[in-house]
């Protein structure tokens, strides 16, 4: 049998379902649901987990955090597209939203109760797996229910989830860094409450399940079909650009607590966790502004690529600021500029992605594949970052590495032809 080609069975179709006028407040619910995701990712991943790892083994914290992050990447990247495909097949989103969030609550409660590196690794893998089930279903709601000509605005509003959720998560984590169990449990309750709110106020509209039973399909063909969206040229370049940008950003952000402790000269009396509680709102406020402005202007001008490319290039260039000025003022400037760049990128790039999906009927599955480029690098980043810091010594190479990845991500957007 010849190799399977995505174009054999997947053709571009009309856009996803238009908005249902009965669903007033859908955007607000999606904002809350996505914010809870980032509250967990940023609060637990950037503050609580590094604090927990340092308490277990302070001499090997960089390598240990990287190892835990690398192993958990397998679970995160596998669960997201699988959950998306199962959600497509079932024709419903809400059971996956609610189930993933409640399972994450249990995983976070378990994570806060363990005291060895092995159990921390196991617990973090469970959290990443279940949060990606939640994320896959929530992400699919935009192409399901938002009209294409409103994707930029919708993506901008949903994109506010990162600054809102990231700030909330880091503030919770910073205040509970000395009480890890409380911090993890609080973040889990935030995600569970958001899922309950979304599923209670935005009922599923049963969709026609698009995966009819196919008899005797070889596993290789099934795997090819599962990843067939990557056969679309535009989707593939969007995937590459997102992966590079996210990896560059989170390679630095994931180690920010250690950077503040070991690389930056902080003012007297300012501890790294407290510094995080200052830097994060600065970055997230800038991100909120650029998210809204970028999304709205990209709709008004019907231009997406220039916003994505310029913002990714800016993100790469500002990585040089902490190298030139490893000081507290330097970190404040870096956080503000990096927030501006990353916010605009994520808002407009999400609109680009929804516009290059090969088939609306497979939206959740294909967004799940795309989310490998979003969630996977976030989890792999500690592993990659630890390797860079260990191999080259110190955090200056890490900033340069992250900047190079962002610049490559800027270049990856230009080959996309289906979006202006």
Automatic annotation (TrEMBL):
It is a multi-pass membrane protein. This is MFS transporter. The chain crosses the membrane at residues 26-50, 62-83, 154-174, 180-201, 239-260, 272-294, 306-325, 331-357, 369-392, 398-416. It is found in: Cell membrane. Keywords: Membrane, Transmembrane, Transmembrane helix. PANTHER family: MAJOR FACILITATOR SUPERFAMILY (MFS) PROFILE DOMAIN-CONTAINING PROTEIN, PTHR23528. One of its GO terms (cellular component) is plasma membrane. The keyword Transmembrane applies. It comes from the Bacteria. InterPro entries: MFS, MFS_dom, MFS_trans_sf. The keyword Transmembrane helix applies.
